[in-house]
Amino acid sequence: MDGEIYEYDDQRPRSPGSGGGGGTSIHITALDGIINVNSLFTLAVFVGLAWNPSDPSGGTLASSDCAAGNRVAENVVSFHVFAFASFLFSSLVALCLKQAIRLVHPPGSSRAARVNRALLRAGILASAVGSVFGCGFLMLALVNVVQVKLGRLGCGGSASAGAIAPLVTLVPAAMLIYTVIVFYAFIR
Q: At a CB cut-off of 8 Å and minimum separation 6, what does 84 contact?
């Protein structure tokens, strides 16, 4: 049953066919990775929020007929705030899980940690969902930044589409790979 409490012991070697679910050090390493990546993205969000899209000296390259309106500039700020909230949620959940593991299995302890696998998996899944939403909102913010700098999408001759194409191709592809791997880890 997934709701049962499993014992993890980082010190005990596992045989390949033993069915062991891995140790807490693996979970802590995964949570550290989530926290580190979220920290980098949160820094990017703050840099984005420091930029004022309506500043006339901001260096827009768009012609006046292709210039992005106030709504696009508002979306830049909104999506940065949504991204920040998502990354903060993800990081706080990951930190709480990491702390909970450390409380039941102090470093250097030789006893096995008693971890509720269902709660741990649900927490890691919630943290991953927060990271995915944060990446999505950050991507949308960058799409709007490109529109402010290079002109609206759909405006004839605008360089925005060329600049946005790699962004809207690579980021969702990476998020899909991340989601598949997290889902695979979740069902194992």
A: 42, 45, 46, 49, 134
Q: Which one, of 6, 97, 90, lies nearest residue 40 by Cα?
A: 90
Q: Which residues contact 170 (CB under 8 A, 6 or more apart)?
A: none
- The model's confidence at residue 6, banded by pLDDT at 50, 70 and 90, is very low
Please, what's the b/e burial string for 55-73 (b: 16 or more CB within 10 A of its CB; e: otherwise)?
Answer: eeeeebebeeebebeeebb
Q: How far apart are CA 75 and CA 145, in angstroms?
A: 9
* Tens of pLDDT, residues 111-140: 666 778 888 888 988 998 999 999 999 999
Q: Which helix (H) or strand (E) holds 8?
A: strand 5-8
Q: Which amino acid is at 182?
A: V
Q: What are the angstrom distances between the C-alpha of 18 and each of 41, 70, 152?
A: 38, 60, 58
Domain boundaries, the chain: 23-187
CA end-to-end span of the chain, whole Å?
A: 13
Task: Enter the pTM of the model.
Answer: 0.75
- Among 4-8, 67-71, 149-153, 177-181, the least confident range: 4-8
Residue recorded with tokens 């939403």: 133
